Amino acid sequence: MELKEVTVERLTSQCRDLNRKYELLRDEYEQIKDLYSSMPSLENHK
After folding, report:
1. Domain locations in the chain?
2. I want to staple 40 with a disulfide (CB 3.0 to 4.6 A). Which of 19, 29, 30, 44 is the partner?
């Protein structure tokens, strides 16, 4: 029973960490997307 509890705790912690990483990456992605959308495209330079 104790091993099961430790495993559940560890997995819960890993999920929390992954969720945090996902949120950070999503924010970063949104910033990059906004940056690119504000830049003139190569087509406009021809």
Report:
1. 1-25
2. 44
DSSP 11: H
Q: Tell me if residue 1 falls in helix, strand or coil.
A: coil
DSSP 10-42: HHHHHHHHHHHHHHHHHHHHHHHHHHHHHSPPG
Backbone angles phi, psi at 33, to 5 degrees: -60, -45
Query: Mind listing the pLDDT tens digit for each residue in 1-46?
Result: 799 999 999 999 999 999 999 999 999 999 999 999 998 776 655 5
Q: Match 């949104």 to its residue by tokens.
A: 30
